[in-house]
Amino acid sequence: xxxxxxxxxxxxxxxxxxxxxxxxxxxxxxxxxxxxxxxxxxxxxxxxxxxxxxxxxxxxxxxxxxxxxxxxxxxxxxxxxxxxxxxxxxxxxxxxxxxxxxxxxxxxxxxxxxxxxxxxxxxxxxxxxxxxxxxxxxxxxxxxxxxxxxxxxxxxxxxxxxxxxxxxxxxxxxxxxxxxxxxxxxxxxxxxxxxxxxxxxxxxxxxxxxxxxxxxxxxxxxxxxxxxxxxxxxxxxxxxxxxxxxxxxxxxxxxxxxxxxxxxxxxxxxxxxxxxxxxxxxxxxxxxxxxxxxxxxxxxxxxxxxxxxxxxxxxxxxxxxxxxxxxxxxxxxxxxxxxxxxxxxxxxxxxxxxxxxxxxxxxxxxxxxxxxxxxxxxxxxxxxxxxxxxxxxxxxxxxxxxxxxxxxxxxxxxxxxxxxxxxxxxxxxxxxxxxxxxxxxxxxxxxxxxxxxxxxxxxxxxxxxxxxxxx
Length: 471
Fold this sequence. Notes:
mainly alpha, two-stranded antiparallel ribbon, Znf_NHR/GATA, single chain, 2 domains, Retinoid X Receptor, protein homodimerization activity, Erythroid Transcription Factor GATA-1, Chain A
């Protein structure tokens, strides 16, 4: 099936060679190429090592020299009041490759090496406080109180769960390991996906000034705080919202994907064959996003340069969102059947990276969340437009106009969900909180080696299909 892109937006270079890995794969769509992210800056970073795991350190975090991974882990553990368990003797080896195997020992070492939990901002935002404070020494008794959870006793646990999974995403356009959700350990599994709910985030921000970074979220926090107190009432959908949603849905290609995903019984799929299939799917999904742009109701309001910049920065997120929603029956049905016929070698299993494990866990969580919400076509169209209209992307010529468009569809989506689902007062924030998780996962997938993608998809699709069959 051939899908021709619009003339004004040329076909991305190298699309047929495999799934594009970063913004440079669509650089032909813009007169100015996208610069590699922080590549020159990273080259100049001193080769210091993290005191926790030995990975390359990025600076002084919470009082000690550490890497981004341990910085983010420590912050999440303290902010979310995590209580971990060690299945061994509480003396696990900490290294870059083994640091995720035991989160109990990782947090223990953070505290023993002097990481200062009081340097973490109380509002949970990026950037610590009291930066002049260096490493701290605390007694073994105090460490034990933190590790056992006694330090947090009496504090309300605001997380909520569904089928063992709870929801955690933090709104915002930027993505960093230190302020994004992360899978954490539970006593039953060191690799379970346990994430915080919106309620904790809501309490964190209600009554406090919202930072400029989050001001693009119209009414989100106040909406969630008060909606549960007001009984649902019958109401009509604003005519303008109805018109805008219809325009967005009309711009979507909701026809089933044309890439063949059928396989004979008993056929054994090779890694190369599965990888080729994933490439074809990525091509088709990408071309659908390119064609979608010309049909947007606000197409004439922005420049081609801005559209090119937006698409080159968000295409992976758009593909992921569509795969989890409107095309999910094919992806988690037909494609899952194909991946089930692929048997990875021992070497592939051994080489599967921690980055791949994190992506796998987050994708499974996100699938379950979307499966629970049963996102409608109208909601999907709004979410896609909101995610696309990211005014924080570098190189835009009219960021203020993008911000207004972004807000327009926030209001439209909120209006629609309140009208369509009056008995689900938290549905709108639940939907919006999925967007930063999608953005984070899409960014992480760039770092997964190409040869690991077949195994990654096999693991994710198998787990998701199994969880659905058990419901």
